[in-house]
Amino acid sequence: MMQVAVLRADDERPPRAPQAGDGVAEWFEPMLAGRLVQAGLPTLAALAGRINEAGARWWYPVRGLGATKAARIAEWLQARQGETGLAVRLPVRPAQAQRPHAARDLAWRAPRPAAHPFPPSFTT
User: Fold this and answer.
1) How far is 22 from 44, CA to CA, in rounded Å?
2) Residue 80: which CATH number?
């Protein structure tokens, strides 16, 4: 399984615990941090607030961020609640993400094309 790069390399991060007022650029990869800042989430406090307010789809306004990276970011912040002083409620993923067969379960509701447009009695 491929790891999704979210955090800066250990040698690039500050040698201290993260704080609520820290900029996202101190802790996350530069491209990701830039996109978070563009979306109005320049600090860890702003990021945690967005996660808590918006829930599972907190990442929608962040260009190029998907569910996998968003989940890793939220988990990282939650694991550091004691250090940052930020309460982070992990968002519940949308139902379809939790149930990979949800689309298949709904498929029976879609109308199926008839093999033949008329019943057999009309064609003979």
Assistant:
1) 6
2) 1.10.150
